[in-house]
User: What shape does this take?
Amino acid sequence: MHAVLLGASRNIGYHLLRDLISTPSNTVTLLLRSPKCFDGDTDVTPAIESGQITIVEGDGMSVDDVAKCFADGKQVDVVVSTIGSFPVVTLTGFKLPIPNLCTVAAAAMLINVAKLPQATPPRVIVVSSMGIGSQHHIMPFALRIMYSLLLAGPHRDKEGLEYLVQHASRAMASPTDPRDVPGKDILTPEQLTAVPGSFLPEVILIRPALLTDGEAKGRPSLRAGADIATYSCSRKDVAGFIATECMPGQQAWVNQGVVLGY
Assistant: This one.
């Protein structure tokens, strides 16, 4: 299996990378702004040296840079985007340095996936968040309050991400509920027009609960479902779930949004 990972220098993407390369037959292409981020990493460096990992230098928001991940002509089985950034704290809550980072990166990725010459497009998996848009009511009450007060900005960016993926999906219709439609300051009409519609046969939206850096608990402690109410989830468990239940060949969560948490 060959995977393209966007956002794998740290957090969920990094843990997923380690999970994937534990199977020698898997190969991975990474897009990194800083290719030296793995210097001294004894888990990842051997896979780079052996050619199991190919590193491409570039920015996930750039259509041209993302194109480099597919330039070698390899058959791509799955593309996973865990791109995100840490919000900064302001008097009015957490804000992203780039308010539409995830949305723009999703557009750059989808534009390039649509151009692949292979007969069947790869499966596309993106990491979003629990409680986006019309799914807000599913969260426990305390998190509904907290997310509304502190994470409204980052969640609007995730709305743009999810909207684009569903727009590109053959099986998941573009959202029509106003709560799920991103504003033009997040997703412009020009950006939406640049992404082809209904071309992806397989997508998965990963919607983790409040993320932590705790150790993985695994199944059955990790719950998964479309509408479960949950509080937190380890980044390692999100990565493990993607690696074991969402890769090509695993069909349980295809063309769905799945909430993860304990």
Remarks:
- Helices lie at 11-21, 45-50, 63-67, 101-114, 141-150, 152-168, 189-194, 235-245.
- The first strand starts at residue 2 and ends at 6.
- The chain has a mean pLDDT of 94.
- The longest helix spans residues 152-168.
